[in-house]
Amino acid sequence: MVIYRGLAPCDVLAASDALHAAGVTAFETTMDSPGALDSIAGLSRRLGGGALVGAGSVRTIGHVRAAADAGASFLLSPHLDEGLVAATKAAGMVSIPGAFTPTEVVQAHAAGADLVKIFPIAPAGAAYVEQLRQPLPDVPLLATGGVTAELGKQCLVAGCATVGVGAGLIDADAVKYRDWDRLADGARRYLAVLRDKDE
Fold first, then answer.
1. Which of 43, 56, 101, 186 falls 20 to 30 Å from 22 in CA-CA distance?
2. Residue 184: helix, strand or coil by DSSP?
3. Strand (E) positions, 111-194?
4. Class of residue 89 by CB neighbours under 10 A (exposed 0-12, middle 13-18, buried 19+)
């Protein structure tokens, strides 16, 4: 899942065309990005059933409602708020709250989360995921927060269902100069590392 933070809707749409062609199938726009709802709505129309489109940094019920109206199919939060989980599920969307400690992970799962976002993962590393999975093998995890290609690969091997990546995949210069071919090439290299899990 690619994470857009701070990109204008026109750049989100152009970048997503390139990334989707390269094999990326899930796109998150954080709610604190300029024109976030326009980006979500545009991606929902543009990609249709060919990709998952969602909202990130969701912190209020208002965010839940607005993202649902824009066409989001999943929501991520940096934290656990049981009310947001319930509202997300009631709106028919996938709920992915943030957690870190085992207690938070269990609480998020019990609240109805479809996936639990382990955030931030970079300071702890994939070994932390492996440790969490031992007593909690039934809880689907998504790792995010500083996920390089190599860390992403390690998190998948450790048992994560998927990973979310922003700066590790979004080449700032490629976006700045609107070099979408360069962005797509970088995404293909990133995905190649993730898929080569047996090395």
1. 56
2. helix
3. 116-118, 141-144, 162-164
4. middle
DSSP 168: T
Domains of the chain by residue range: 2-97+144-149+163-195
CATH 3.20.20.70 fits 2-97+144-149+163-195, yes or no: yes
Q: pLDDT (tens digit, 0 to 9) for every residue of the chain, 199 residues total?
A: 999 999 999 999 999 999 999 999 999 999 999 999 999 999 999 997 899 999 999 999 999 999 999 999 999 999 999 999 999 999 999 999 999 999 999 999 999 999 999 999 999 999 999 999 999 999 999 999 999 999 999 999 999 999 999 998 999 999 999 999 999 999 999 999 999 855 4
Identify the bridge partners of residue 143 per DSSP, sorted by sequence position: 118, 163
Q: What is the pTM of this model?
A: 0.94
Sheet containing 98-99, strands listed edge to edge, beginning at the edge strand earlier in sequence: 98-99, 116-118, 141-144, 162-164
**Bond before 97 cis per omega within 30 degrees:** no
Q: Please say whether the beta carbons of 8 and 34 come within 8 A.
A: yes
